[in-house]
Each structure stands twice: as structure tokens, then as C-alpha cells.
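Support reply, case 0932

Customer input (verbatim):
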Amino acid sequence: MKILVTGAAGFIGFHVSQSLIQKGHYVIGLDNINDYYDINLKFARLNELGIPKDTASSFNKLVISSKHRNSFKFIRLDIQNREALPVLFKKEKFDVVCNLAAQAGVRYSIENPETYVDSNIVGFLNILQCCRNFNTKHLVYASSSSVYGLSDKIPFETDDTVDKPISLYAATKKSNELMAHTYSHLFNIPTTGLRFFTVYGPWGRPDMAIFLFTKAISENKPINVFNHGDLERDFTYIDDITEGITRICEKKTEDRKTINELYKIYNIGNNNTVKLIDFITEIETNLNKKATKNLMPMQKGDVKKTWANVDDLIRDYNYQPKTSIQNGIKIFINWYQEFYNDII
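Our regenerated output:
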């Protein structure tokens, strides 16, 4: 199939592009390469996909072919662009769109709310309109576990009430689900939203906890541990996430006729919960260093515990998260040390 992956220079988008290419699909990756974090990491991911930095760094509307992958092309474009995005859709006629482009980060949304509306609302609307106007067979898109807010019902299930977000980021992701439902209902577009649960692994974002902890401990600097360490997360390794997304993108949608079939929401996580302190201990073990911990109060927008019920995804796609925290953290730290040439 011909698949558009937005956010292809991002953490999850890069891995999903790689997986789809390896499965034999023709992928066009799209990213605006904003400066929310170090763009050199984004260029390095693209380089792994065969797009050299000097080519990817120039703004243009031409699709750039990969040097060593004949099934991948890249375009530097913002999903907010109402003129250029329809041109791309009209030319390429995508079978599937996997929309992973978004402004990420719960805490960043408190100080920069406009950015989230621009990317996560306006940009997503443009994606929906293009899928509608150019007959895309399936839209797969990123939602977030943050939509569950302060729910104390554990584990989180997709039929739980999620109308009380506690961050603007969460509110935009819930808005995406509502917008997708509207387009599925009005225009018979199959849409599948995925509520991600604390994804980690190689090539991750520098603002992620595992990245921040590893960097600080490596440099003998203290780490900030919020809610005095009394936090639990459904940490999910990137390969498990990627495998799930790939299976969803590959599944035919012709038999999805009713609104309950056309519009789908799934949790995608590890189906388990891990204490933050245990997560930090595993990092310490792999670095062979003890962390100096600054115990801090709960941050605005954070929740105490997340845990995904993924029974629906197991039933419909044979989803099987299988990477333990021990293996996942070990692989991440090996990548981190190699990528940044740290001597630890």
C-alpha cells in the first residue's frame, strides 16, 4: 500500500516508517521539523531512512527520495498548510494515512497553548479534510492516555468517560477523537485512534523521562522526581507500539460499514504498570551509577497512575506487547551511549 506517515522525523513516526518499509509498503514521510527539541536528532532519524540532512533541511514542496530505500520518500511540510497538503494528497492518492504529527508534551502545553491548537486541532482538521476529499481508505491517528485525566478507575478502558482533561494537550487529543468520529459519521471514513501509554526506546524525544534521567545520571547531575516518586506508568517499548500500529495500517477496512465499525478507539500500551522509582532503579543499574534525586511535588497536568487495558487490541489485531522494562531500558541506554558517545 501507499501510506503517508506524518511526523516521520519524530520518535514514533520514524519507527513506524521503518516498520512499514520493512513490510514492503511504499511510504511517504512528512514532517515540518520544528524546534520543540534538537532538530539534529530529527535529521539523524531521517538519515537512518536515507534522507541526508542537507536535503531535508531545505523547505520546498518537492518529495525527496531516499538514497538507500526505494520505498521511502520525504517531504518537509506542515500539516497546517491548507494549500500544499491537498496538492500532496491529490498527487499521491494514499491508501492509508498514519497521522503522528502533533505538538507533544503535557507540561509544555501549559505555557504554549497556541502551539497545540495550531498543530493538534487545525493540522488535524486539514488531515481529515484531505482524507475526505481524496478518498483515503483508512486514517490511523495518535491520541493519548492523557485523555483519561484524573480517572481513578484502573486499568483505563476505552469506554471510560474522558470528558475532564487536565491539560490542554489532553484536551486537543480528545478533540481529535471527536473530530474523527464526526468525519467517520458524515463521510464514511474509517478512522482508528490510538491512545498511547508512555512510549520509550531508542531515538526517543529528549523531553521524555528516560532521556532526562539517563542524561542527568550520566553527567552526575540530580534528577527531578515528581510526586516524591509516588507515580506509576504503563511504560511501553517502542517496538511493541510500532508493531501494533503496523498491523492496524495493514488491515483492510472495506468491511467497516456502520459507525461503530468505522470509528475505532484503542488503548495501546504494555498492559502493565511500573512504579517510577523501579524505572529509575533499572536505569541506575544499566548505567552503574546512583541517581541524586530531587523529590518534587506533583506537576500541573500530571496524573498519578496510568495503566492500559488493551484487550480490544489483542482481540482485533492479536497485539502482543512483549518487551520487559529490563530489556527495553537496556536497549535504550546502549543506543543513548552510542549516539551521544558518552563515556560512562
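We compared this against your earlier run and they match. Two observations from our side: The mean pLDDT is 92. The radius of gyration is 19 Å. Please reopen the case if you see a mismatch on your end.
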